[in-house]
Write a structure and sequence with these properties.
Blueprint lengths: L6 H27 L4 H24 L6 H28 L4 H24 L5 H12 L5 H19 L3 E8 L2 E8 L6 E8 L2 E7 L8 E5 L8 E9 L2 E4 L5 E5 L5 E7 L2 H7 L1 H16 L9 H24 L37 H13 L5 H25 L4 H8 L20 H14 L9 H15 L5 H21 L3 H6 L1 H32 L17 H13 L8 H24 L4 H28 L10 H9 L5 H14 L7 H52 L18 H9 L3 H7 L13
Antiparallel strand pairs: 1-4, 1-6, 2-3, 2-5, 5-9, 6-7, 8-9
């Protein structure tokens, strides 16, 4: 009886036990705060509280017997809260300026509801390990659920990151500066791999990432240094653990002049062992995947399940390339966040909340970026990784929509969808470009949420609030965001108008999506119109009429031929190949326009059930949203081409060089797949056509993954390296001439002077990477 006591009584007892446990944990935290950092103190005190908390919760709060499964699940259930709590602690301490001793109290209060639900769930788990495995196997195969697809995407991407992980080598030294070369000898082939880095004068911490932890030693060449080199400390960092290299493992060799130019470093055994962990994780994940991955999806053929696996694989490879092969530091417009101007996210002002740039107002993405930069001390890599997480969210909803509405060419559409996972999109150079994909994420999220409405009573006020929030977030993400929800409203009106025009009263009566989705569609459309007015008001007040000019060129209207040539180039770029011919561009555009016309005829002439009406509505919304966005881009960017350009190929090539094609690559697979649901094709012909298209698309995508993407990410990395060398060269020149400017076009078209000073004075991560010093407490003065 006590085990089934009311939840409010359990919660009261949980508060009492939590108070006792929290007091103990907080006391430990305060003691540790005197000898270590606040992050480490919080983590240690948290772990110590877990053991005492489990005893109280199992014996006194929930009156549940202890089992091995509960003991194993208890810390796992707390892991998400630990991560969230640590991030909140950093955000409150560094973003809001609250002292660490008080920040922990706020984090504890905010985490109480999460803790209670997590512990209550653990205490009610009475599964045996075999039962738990079968439940996991059943849930892992539900690929029609976005949350399951998202977990597959994130877990596979995490394993890919593990495979690319290299230990961090920190070399602290004092010298007059010069070029340092790190050489590692491969253990089996005895071939060498070298990396060169410019070292500034003074006391610096130089960072390398040795690519092969199986190598037993590393060689540092400092022969280009002027004067002596004082080696102070050498450390390896692997998975957050620091391994100090003892002086006995460091060997110095002298050159002919008697200087110590060659330094050999023996890699600690623990670093080599940790280097094997990633491969163990990868092997375990592969084994679990083969066991849990569904062999066949309900209502789909066998190929569809493997097409989903193909998208997961492409995303994992893409994440690996973005993180380990591309730039980490800001590039081009990314640097605006580090200024003291209106776009700054690092100062204490909030001017960025009402500012626009590049023809748009992008508040939603800036909110995310502000949280990330404040939480991770200005580390821009966090912004790039969040962009990948947002991409995984979009893929989850897009895949779920295809599996829900498509039956005939679902596998083809999924392979086609993988073309939006490309370095030519928003993840090639400028990190904040991911803002332009956020509207598509919130749009597909809204479409999936619409499918959850099954009857008129399902559309509750709470759901309308969710729809309003999604549409508002999309509309404030980018100026193109509202067009998707406006397109959804237009599509709904077009379908109703065509059906009313034919006076099909019985069809209107049976058109269940109109009754069920009506309030939600009206809410999404009205919020879309409202956010479009907000976008236009803010942008026009800052830069003038968009009908006359964009931020970069004059506006080109549809009365000019280059508008249409640019538009066709955008559609041709969706094929995944930037060098497609004008005839293929024209063919794809004609196919799209013909499909729109076909869908209009379907609405006009065919009797449709509720599911078919929903399919038709979503197909039209995706098609209209894509064409409206492409027209906006053509009007605002085709003016960048030369006015005397008379060749279709000249303008189309420029259009294909823009990353704006991504919207079409994301929406057209859904549009074409849902359109083909209304086409009657012989089963045999359908099978051979699907197989042919899959083979062609896989071939082109494989070439993109193995050739195009690595080259572009390598170019971004080289651009970053050139920018770092440029900044360090300008710094050395500034030691003799204070008037020297940080003019490094690899990083930013104009001077970097307005960005360098803020990151140094605030001890931000980019300053550490550029100037090779550790992040110091804010009360210490930087020598730079």
């Amino acid at each position: 009886m006590q085990a089934n006591r009311p939840i409010f009584l359990q919660f009261n007892r949980f508060l009492v036990s939590g108070t006792v446990n929290t007091a103990l944990s907080y006391a430990v935290y305060l003691v540790l705060l005197r000898v270590t950092s606040y992050e480490l103190a919080y983590i240690i005190s948290y772990i110590l509280g877990l053991g005492f908390g489990y005893y109280l919760n199992s014996r006194w709060v929930f009156f549940k017997s202890s089992t091995k499964l509960k003991i194993a699940l208890y810390p796992i259930a707390y892991l998400p809260q630990l991560i969230i709590g640590t991030l909140l602690l950093r955000l409150i301490s560094e973003g809001l300026g609250v002292p660490p001793s008080l920040s922990a109290i706020f984090v504890i209060i905010l985490s109480v509801p999460i803790n209670f639900l997590a512990v209550r769930w653990v205490m009610h788990q009475n599964y045996t390990p075999q039962m738990l495995w079968h439940k996991l196997q059943a849930n892992a195969g539900k690929l029609t659920q976005p949350k399951i697809i998202f977990l597959w995407l994130i877990s596979s991407a995490t394993i890919a990151l593990f495979l690319g992980y290299h230990p961090k080598l920190e070399i602290t030294l004092r010298s007059a500066g010069g070029q340092m070369q790190l050489t590692q000898i491969q253990p089996f082939t005895h071939s060498t791999e070298s990396t060169t880095q410019q070292v500034l004068s003074g006391s610096r911490t130089v960072v390398f990432y040795p690519s092969n932890t199986l190598a037993r030693s590393l060689v540092l060449d400092t022969s280009s240094f002027t004067g002596s080199v004082e080696l102070q400390k050498v450390d390896f960092l692997s998975f957050g653990l620091r391994a100090h290299v003892k002086s006995a493992s460091i060997y110095r060799e002298t050159d002919q002049t008697g200087g110590q130019s060659i330094i050999r470093i023996k890699i600690p055994l623990i670093v080599t062992i940790f280097g094997m962990i990633s491969w163990l994780f990868a092997g375990l994940f592969l084994f679990v995947t083969l066991k849990l991955w569904p062999r066949r999806l309900d209502g789909h053929d066998r190929v569809t399940g493997w097409a989903v696996a193909w998208v997961v694989f492409c995303f994992s490879v893409f994440v690996y390339q973005v993180v380990w092969s591309s730039a980490w530091l800001p590039l081009l417009d990314d640097w605006r966040y580090y200024s003291d101007g209106g776009f700054s996210l690092i100062n204490e002002r909030f001017d960025w909340m009402l500012i626009s740039g590049n023809d748009t107002y992008f508040l939603t993405g800036q909110v995310f970026d502000w949280i990330l930069l404040k939480t991770f001390n200005g580390n821009f890599l966090s912004v790039r990784i969040f962009g990948l997480v947002a991409l995984a969210g979009f893929l989850s909803f897009a895949i779920a929509l295809l599996l829900h509405f498509s039956r005939n060419f679902t596998a083809v559409a999924l392979i086609f969808l993988s073309f939006c996972i490309s370095s030519s999109g928003y993840w090639g150079y400028t990190g904040i470009a991911y803002h332009q994909m956020l509207p598509v994420l919130f749009f597909t999220w809204s479409l999936w949420y619409l499918t959850r409405i099954s009857n008129p009573k399902s559309s509750t006020p709470a759901q309308l609030v969710v729809f309003s929030s999604l549409a508002l977030a999309a509309g404030l993400s980018y100026i193109s965001g509202p067009t998707l929800f406006i397109s959804l409203g237009i599509a709904s009106l077009v379908i109703k108008a065509l059906q009313w025009f034919q006076a099909r009263s019985e069809i209107v009566k049976n058109n269940q999506d109109g009754n069920h989705w009506g309030p939600a569609l009206l809410t999404l459309s009205l919020v879309g119109l409202t956010t479009m007015l907000i976008q236009l008001g803010i942008v026009i007040s800052r830069q003038g009429s968009l009908l006359e000019h964009s931020h970069a060129s004059t506006t080109v209207l549809p009365t000019e031929a280059r508008f249409w040539w640019f538009l066709a180039g955008l559609y041709g770029r969706v094929s995944g190949q930037p060098g497609t011919s004008v005839w293929l561009d024209l063919l794809i555009l004609i196919m799209f326009l013909a499909s729109l016309t076909f869908l209009a005829c379907i609405a006009l002439r065919r009797r449709l059930n509720a599911h078919q009406n929903q399919t038709l509505l979503i197909a039209l919304a995706c098609g209209l949203g894509g064409i409206l966005y492409a027209c906006m881009v053509s009007a605002g960017r085709s003016g960048l081409t030369a006015k005397d350009a008379t060749s279709w190929a000249q303008i189309a090539v420029y259009a294909k060089g823009r990353f704006h094609y991504w919207w079409l690559a994301a929406l057209l697979p859904i549009f074409f797949a849902l359109t083909l649901e209304f086409v009657k094709i012989n089963a045999a012909w359908q099978r051979w056509l699907a197989i042919s298209l899959i083979l062609i698309l896989v071939f082109f995508k494989f070439d993109q993954v193995t050739h195009d993407d690595p080259q572009k990410f390598k170019a971004a990395k080289q651009r970053e390296s050139a920018g770092v060398d440029c900044v360090r060269t300008r710094w050395m020149e500034a030691q003799h001439d204070k008037s020297k400017r940080y003019d490094c076009p690899q990083f930013y078209p104009s001077t970097l002077n307005g960005f360098i000073r803020p990151i140094i004075t605030r001890n931000l991560q980019p300053a550490t990477d550029l100037f090779q010093y550790r992040i110091k407490p804010s009360n210490e003065n930087q020598s730079n």
